[in-house]
TrEMBL record:
It comes from Momordica charantia (Bitter gourd). This is H/ACA ribonucleoprotein complex subunit 2. One of its GO terms (biological process) is snRNA pseudouridine synthesis. Common component of the spliceosome and rRNA processing machinery. Required for ribosome biogenesis. Part of a complex which catalyzes pseudouridylation of rRNA. This involves the isomerization of uridine such that the ribose is subsequently attached to C5, instead of the normal N1. Pseudouridine ('psi') residues may serve to stabilize the conformation of rRNAs. Keywords: Nucleus, Ribonucleoprotein, Ribosome biogenesis, RNA-binding, rRNA processing.
Length: 155
């Protein structure tokens, strides 16, 4: 009887994630795209071309910086991030929702849960070698292409 409840625990956690999602969390990344996106966020954090948190992301977007905006879908209260997708659309920046703010923070090398991050297209000059920059750009392009495809299918 103990083994049944242990087998159900991971499934119950998965249900909680889905139930806690905000109703505006569209386009939401699937499992594969979510993994790829979080991997990109992890690399961007490593190479110092990542903006974390609503304030930093909004400031960067208003300054004209381009990139990929990754927003957590389980934010409460939802009013904290409702303006971010609108800003992204006005600035022609792709954005995607991921299910968990904790996973997003973990990928972004932060201990605190993070509402949103902006993966910038161009890292700071002199930070990366050309080989590393090409790898990051290739991953970035792949994720942006998938996000664009997902977004166009929703319209």
């Amino acid at each position: 009887m103990g083994s049944d409840s242990e087998a159900e625990k991971p499934h119950q956690k998965e249900k909680k994630k889905i139930v806690a999602l905000a109703p505006i969390a569209k386009p939401l990344a699937g499992k594969k795209l979510c993994k790829r996106t979080l991997k990109l966020v992890r690399k961007a954090a490593e190479y110092k071309c990542l903006k974390r948190g609503v304030k930093e992301v909004v400031k960067s977007i208003r300054r004209g910086h381009k990139g990929l905006c990754v927003i957590a879908g389980n934010i409460s209260p939802i009013d904290v991030i409702t303006h971010v997708p609108i800003l992204c659309e006005e600035s022609d920046i792709c954005y995607i929702y991921v299910p968990s703010k904790e996973e997003l923070a973990n990928a972004g090398s932060t201990k605190r849960p993070t509402c949103c991050v902006l993966v910038q297209t161009k890292p700071n000059k002199g930070e990366l070698g050309s080989n590393e920059q090409e790898k990051l750009k290739a991953d970035y392009d792949q994720v942006v292409a998938e996000v664009s495809e997902l977004t166009s299918s929703l319209i």
